[in-house]
TrEMBL record, chain A:
Residues 119-272, 403-540 form the Nitrite/sulphite reductase 4Fe-4S domain. The keyword Acetylation does not apply. This is Sulfite reductase [ferredoxin]. GO terms for molecular function: 4 iron, 4 sulfur cluster binding; heme binding; metal ion binding; sulfite reductase (ferredoxin) activity. Pfam families: NIR_SIR, NIR_SIR_ferr. InterPro entries: NIR_SIR_4Fe-4S (IPR051329), NiRdtase/SiRdtase_haem-b_fer (IPR005117), Nit/Sulf_reduc_fer-like_dom_sf (IPR036136), NO2/SO3_Rdtase_4Fe4S_dom (IPR006067), NO2/SO3_Rdtase_4Fe4S_sf (IPR045854). PANTHER family: BLR3264 PROTEIN, FERREDOXIN--NITRITE REDUCTASE, CHLOROPLASTIC. It comes from Pontivivens insulae. It comes from the Bacteria. Its EC number is 1.8.7.1. Residues 52-110, 321-390 form the Nitrite/Sulfite reductase ferredoxin-like domain. Keywords: 4Fe-4S, Heme, Iron, Iron-sulfur, Metal-binding, Oxidoreductase.
From TrEMBL, chain B:
It comes from Pontivivens insulae. It comes from the Bacteria. This is Uncharacterized protein. The lineage of its organism: Bacteria, Pseudomonadati, Pseudomonadota, Alphaproteobacteria, Rhodobacterales.
Amino acid sequence: MYDYTDFDREFVYGRVAEFREQVKRRVDGSMTEDEFKPLRLMNGLYLQLHAYMLRVAIPYGTLNSRQMDQLAYIADTWDKGYGHFTTRQNIQYNWPKLADVPEMLEALADVGMHAIQTSGNTIRNVTADHFAGAAADEIEDPRPTAELIRQWSTDHPEFQFLPRKFKVAVTGSPNDRAVTKAHDIGLRMVRNEAGEPGYEVIVGGGLGRTPMIGKVLKDFLPKADLLPYLEAVMQVYNLHGRRDNKYKARIKILVHEESLETMQARVAEVFERIRDDFEVPQDLIDHIESGFQQPAYKSADIAPVFDGALRSFIDTNTQPHKNPDYAIVTISIKAIGQTPGDATSDQMRVMAQIARDYGHDELRISHEQNVILPHVHRADLPAVFAALKDAGLATANVGLVSDIIACPGMDYCALATARSIPVAQQISEAFADLDAQRDIGPLKIKISGCINACGHHHVGHIGILGLDRAGVENYQITLGGDGTETATVGERAGPGFAYDEIVPAVQRLITAYLDLRTSPEEEFLAAYRRVGMAPFKAALYPEQAEKANAA
Amino acid sequence: MPKPFKSQIVTANDLMMGDVIYLTPEGGWSRDHADAIVATSQDEADELLAQAQAQQLKIVGPYLAEAVLDDAGRPGPVHFREAFRTRGPSNYHHGKQETAAV
């Protein structure tokens, strides 16, 4: 874990004290809502449909057991006993009261956490591969990079009023689990011909109203050049990004309208100018890197696994670790019929305790709204499974049809145009049988409750977008999306479905897939890529297919 | 031809608690949609909204929402978004439905 320095602590507590005064001034009338709103948003406080919402950053998705326990304490003390893990490695509390928010922020500061820049037109919480530091396929741990960017971007005076929000993701592995191609800037750690690690810099990706896959701005950036290069990109965006239309203000539109080559030339010009003035102190880099050392691995005998339920859990919810005696365990926060990403305070405490007992005190939050134990010795998997099972956290569905991403949708979000959560719950219940889910195989369903696409529907194998059509909830389906290193924006299947029609439509899609796959090894996405939209469209719209056949 | 005016109410969120509230005929605020004052003309709606906007110390984000009257003349929501706001989320028994006397 990165340890806060005295400077970090002073800064975060300072912001809490500042916000406490701002709340007082709002309440006593010395500040209007128009004046207060940008200040509360800078500190992660939104107003949603039914209440305020506090969005707390979990930088690059990493936290320790003490921090997880504190998240549980905050949920119990000032909220309704649960938190919602989001698709950007944040946690959201849905029911805070205004007067309590400074207390909540102070409780976060006590464990080295904050809600700074989780909103507003700033550089947001920097996200990373949730298997960082543990993945067997990793070139280098991306978290020191993410932490360096966090420190550079936090309260950066030039980038507090960008044309629009700005999202950065970092991965250290060739298998992209951080959706880097759908971020304003995506950094992929690569090696050059000399074998030195550096970054491929991807720019202009994003979902939302105008989904775009990011383009390679620079194919190899030496590590030492990272901050001046990012500074150059941000300066170009800040100066040339559109401010006349919020729907055209993201960097993806700038890259699209003015060409990648223009962007490259402008960034190169600024970079050359500022590079020599930009020196990151080595002691800062050393301090950051010291927080991300490998754990002190232990040795133990690994017993063979005979229990069927444990076997299934291991097959589905664990991934290869760089140490072959260890495994990465994904805890599904998607029990059948539950709200994707919601964990109760009791569950948070259980996960924290398991991390202490068996996980070298480390936890991760994934953009897929699950919790990861990155370092579990394989000898401890039976004990971890048993502890998770007792807490209702052992659902062996990771990567399967019920491991659904869903934004809060119109159950909470003021921007939403339809509900997402109940659709996810109903799909999960429709496919409750885990054996049947395993037979269907890997399948990513992603649901957004509005065009802003927080549920990443564009990159779901099956994407669902909830809209308001003449005062009625309506759901569009996209197919073939992919958020990995082979990122693809899904293709819209056709007219939308009513709220009570969307789950049967998904069932028809999956039945069609099972009928047409060449073998159980051909996954949904591969089958879609092989056969294209037509057979799935016929399954979605059987009446149209019948008419076409009759004609 | 101008569109016929549809009945409207003023809704907002409570400054301190954040929960959904409705402007009442007395110029105060109620948690119950049925207590809302109903504007029957655009001028009246604009006036009610201005009255709400002047209450910055109590509320956040006032706006007009279309309402429909029941047989007893009490206003209810028209759009599903406003209907959700009268209850709370659908995944938990939280929000107004948590304390509703039903």
